[in-house]
Amino acid sequence: MATIVAVSRGDRHGPGKANQTSVRLLAGLGVENDVHAGATVKHRSRVIRDPSQPNLRQVHLIHAELFDELAGQGFGITPGAMGENITTRDVDLLGLPAGALLRLGSNALVEVTGLRNPCYQLDEIHPGLMQACLGRGPGGEPVRKAGVMGVVVTGGEIRPGDAIAISLPAGPHLPLKPV
């Protein structure tokens, strides 16, 4: 069963977010009291380019299976360490199409907008982590493993152990691209 393993938030930019017993998702904004919450971009590199852009990165989700994979390569990464707000298990986050809806707990709803592009800040957590979060697909295409980003459609409180239900969009499914 698809579940939430951990929920995290941070009040300043930089790697790592503190695990919480619960977080509140706010419609159109993101995680309450998180540095990346807002209707417009909050990630520093995007603010520099255009602070009026819509925030397609309100919520960052990572699959716990990535931590399992990284542990096999000698990385001891725990939930929240890579800056994610929600750590999941038994959800193929990277395989979801753009526009997929994730029902988190009883009423929160997050729309998946795209992939997180692994960046140099991962190497601040552990040298070599950025490269470990990049791979190559069968055709040589880049595979970004650092989770997905989304926007909050319906708010609500979520906590570890809550179930995750997935609704796929109608029509042709568009693969996720970095946002």
Please describe what this structure looks like.
This protein has helices spanning 44-49, 64-71, 121-125, 129-132, and strands spanning 3-9, 18-20, 23-26, 30-31, 59-63, 86-89, 101-104, 108-115, 134-136, 142-144, 148-154, 156-158, 164-167. The chain is α+β, with helices and mostly antiparallel strands and 179 residues long. It has one domain: PK beta-barrel domain-like (M1 Pyruvate Kinase, Domain 3, Beta Barrel), CATH 2.40.33.20. The longest helix is centred in the middle third of the chain and has 8 residues, at 64-71.
Q: What's this model, at a glance?
A:
13% of the residues lie in helices and 32% in strands. The chain has helices at residues 44-49, 64-71, 121-125, 129-132; strands spanning 3-9, 18-20, 23-26, 30-31, 59-63, 86-89, 101-104, 108-115, 134-136, 142-144, 148-154, 156-158, 164-167. 36% of the residues are buried.
Number of helices: 4
Q: Order of strands across the widest beta sheet?
A: 2-1-6-5-11-8-7-13
CATH class: Mainly Beta
The profile of the biggest β sheet is: 8 strands, mixed
Q: Distance between the terminal alpha carbons, to the nearest Å?
A: 28 Å
Beta content: 25-35%
- The figure for the number of domains is 1
Describe how the helices and strands are arranged.
Blueprint: E1 3-9, E2 18-20, E3 23-26, E4 30-31, H1 44-49, E5 59-63, H2 64-71, E6 86-89, E7 101-104, E8 108-115, H3 121-125, H4 129-132, E9 134-136, E10 142-144, E11 148-154, E12 156-158, E13 164-167
Parallel strand pairs: 5-6
Antiparallel strand pairs: 1-2, 1-6, 3-4, 3-12, 5-11, 7-8, 7-13, 8-11, 9-10
